[in-house]
Amino acid sequence: MSYVFNPAPAASVPVVGRAERFPARRIYCVGRNYVEHAKEMGFTGREPPFFFLKPNDALVVVPAGETGTMAYPPLTKDLHHEIELVVAIGKGGKNIKAADAKQHIFGYAVGLDMTRRDLQGEMKKQGRPWCIGKAFDQSAPIGPIVEAAKAGDVENAEIWLQVNGKDRQRSNVNKLIWNIGETIEHLSAAWELQPGDLIYSGTPEGVAAVVAGDTLVGGVTGVGELRIRIA
Ligand code: MN
Fold it and tell me: How many angstroms does the Cα of residue 112 sit away from the middle of ligand 1?
């Protein structure tokens, strides 16, 4: 096969303890999936889960033990962090039941759903798509993927983020409104999941702004840590 120009390199994420990488396909994100975060965004109650996507070339892959770099993006004065547990799909399917979801999961990673909150807010107000607030270049930092069997009790793991050494977000994955299985059930009813899909499962409360020079360190117990500096 030949192309009129070289195709973009395939996005991929390292897998802890393995030479083979995880080829990344789509990035699905769940909105407002922790009660206290829904409240801080002005919402209450358990609404059905909703989704948005980021392009897979928005990933900023940070290898284990390293500090990644993310450029402060243009057009915003309010860049927010959202620490999230990321679910990596290893086996595709549609209309997957929550009870069967685990067999579709390859592993887990720590991710940041970086958000131009001012632009997202403007789009919300106007009823327009969130893309400019959510799906910008370098908006999806991610650490290495830990295979499911080695990840421990992810459903009850602590999830946290510090900025410059100070706590910003600290909660537990068991506070998800829609747990991982339920999220996969809803998502796979709307799209056929494929191996390589990544699901950013939502962020707990405490989202706030970062500026150039800040260092973000976040983690999920049993999955690992993600460290990144805003340049
Ligand atoms: Mn998010």
Answer: 8
Provide the pLDDT for residue 44.
79
Rounded to the nearest angstrom, the distance between the alpha carbon of 80 and the centre of ligand 1 is 10
- The answer to whether 120 and 136 have CB atoms below 8 angstroms apart is no
Whether residue 10 has pLDDT greater than 80: yes
Cα(203) to ligand 1 centroid in Å equals 5
45 pLDDT above the threshold of 80: no
The average confidence (pLDDT) of the chain is 97
* Domain 12-230: homologous superfamily in CATH: Fumarylacetoacetase-like, C-terminal domain (3.90.850.10)
In sequence order, which residues have a C-beta less than 8 Å from that of residue 71 and are 6 or more positions away? 137, 138, 230, 231
The domain limits of the chain are: 12-230
Residue 82 Cα to ligand 1 midpoint, Å, equals 6
Q: If you ran DSSP here, which 8-state letter would residue 148 be given?
A: G
Measured in Å, residue 34 CA sits from the centre of ligand 1 at 10
